[in-house]
Write a structure and sequence with these properties.
Elements (H helix, E strand, L loop, with lengths): L1 H8 L12 H7 L6 E4 L6 H8 L3 E6 L2 H13 L5 E4 L12 E7 L8 H10 L1 E12 L3 H7 L15 H7 L3 E15 L3 E14 L2
Parallel strand pairs: 1-2, 1-4, 2-3, 4-5
Antiparallel strand pairs: 5-7, 6-7
Length: 204
């Protein structure tokens, strides 16, 4: 997968655009700035936006090409981010370090996604917030009709509300819903897709 993402991010254009994900931006704008973690943040569109809003940003991705693009975007935006290259499972942060964790289209391997979710949750302080948007299991139908909308093509890498409630058990959810939305993000998220969006507060 590392080489897949390096190939995608090696191009001059930004694969999913330079602007932040709309749901992420809307939810982040409602929170007081603090420390935020963005696993699998690709070319940095979300992490750089958070940094411009005075957040102390920690991001990571498998792709070195993603980091190079994120660094370029941060420089153009006159801000800085902490960006590590590597598998999220091999990275470590102090427990309770972050005020917010954002998982935006962070589609980890099926056999690892619950483990990675629980690991990410351990880094969030009690009272901290989770922002999540990614493709649901119903998205396969939309991907088949329109491959330009993107997303994994195997159901185990996609999400259900039941899975997320299990992975993030000690949370009070303000938003937890599945929706069909129109995506207009760069070259690889174009068209209608089925997503799950959630915002939760860690309560214990």
């Amino acid at each position: 997968m590392e080489e897949f993402w390096n190939d995608r991010y090696r191009k001059k254009s930004y694969a999913y655009g330079k602007r932040p994900n709309a749901f992420f931006k809307k939810q982040l704008d409602n929170l007081a700035a603090g420390k935020i973690l963005l696993p699998a943040d690709g070319e940095g569109r979300n992490s750089v936006y958070a940094a411009t809003q005075s957040w102390d940003v920690y991001a990571n991705d498998l792709s070195i090409e993603g980091k190079l693009k994120a660094s370029k975007l941060a420089k153009a935006s006159q801000t800085t981010i902490h960006f590590e290259v590597g598998d999220f499972g091999e990275l470590t942060y102090p427990k309770g370090m972050f005020d917010t964790i954002a998982l935006i289209y962070a589609h980890f391997p099926a056999e690892l996604k619950s483990t990675y979710h629980k690991k990410a949750a351990s880094y969030l302080k009690i009272g901290g917030h989770l922002i999540f948007e990614a493709f649901s299991k119903n998205h396969l139908n939309y991907n088949t009709i329109n491959p330009k909308v993107g997303g994994p093509k195997n159901a185990p890498m996609l999400f259900s509300i039941a899975e997320l409630k299990t992975d993030f058990m000690n949370y009070e959810f303000k938003i937890m819903k599945e929706s069909v939305i129109d995506l207009h993000e760069g070259d690889y998220h174009i068209g209608k897709g089925a997503v799950i969006r959630c915002v939760g507060k860690k309560i214990s």
